[in-house]
Amino acid sequence: MYRVMRISAAISKAIERIAKLAAATLGVVALASFVFPPLGNLIETLTAWRFGAVGYVYYEIDAKQEPTKEDGNLYLLASGNRDFSDLHFGSKLQAAMGSKYFRTQPTESAPTMFLLKEGDCVIVLSKSEPTKVVNARSGGWAYVATSGCGLFG
Q: How far apart are CA 59 and CA 75, in angstroms?
């Protein structure tokens, strides 16, 4: 009986140490992410890739660098140019002007996994070659993962 209690106490101490180590590690990563924002963006992107839904969306903008109503419906949440060529790993896109198809493959004929509702966000994991567009400035397919839009969303 005494031996079982000693083993139980040793296991409890080991679990406590592991929990403290995990908490300290998370604290260091959180602090580093706050001090060095690209690390935070990388962690957010990898977390979305691992735990979010992944699929394809079509991104297209008009001459004014605004999402096209027909095919675009996604805002690039960044300052500066918003061309398709400006998308990169970790770029955040937000659904605008209604819903946006989230597809299984990068084609219009691919099955729809679900609809992104206005305000929903995704993070770009990779992108295809630009698509030849009509009545738009630039566009193409992006491989994305669902993500929150803001600091707490």
A: 9
- Name residue 126's amino acid: S
Q: Pick the residue with more confidence: 28 or 89? A: 89
The answer to whether the predicted template modeling score (pTM) of the entire model surpasses 0.85 is no
Instruction: Write down the pLDDT at residue 151.
Output: 56
Burial class of residue 119, CB neighbours in 10 A (0-12, 13-18, 19+)? exposed
- Report d(CA 77, CA 32) in Å as an integer: 23
| pLDDT value for 123 | 93
From the number of C-beta atoms within 10 Å of its C-beta (0-12, 13-18, 19+), residue 51 rates as exposed
The residue behind tokens 């979010």 is 52
Single out the residue of 124, 43, 141, 63 nearest to residue 88, CA to CA. Answer: 124
Residues ≥6 apart with Cβ < 8 Å to 45: 89, 90, 123, 125, 145, 147
DSSP state of 85: G
The DSSP output letter for 83 is -
Burial 4-20 (b: 16+ CB within 10 A, else e): eeeeeeeeeeeeeeeee
* Torsional sign, CA 94, 64, 60, 96: positive
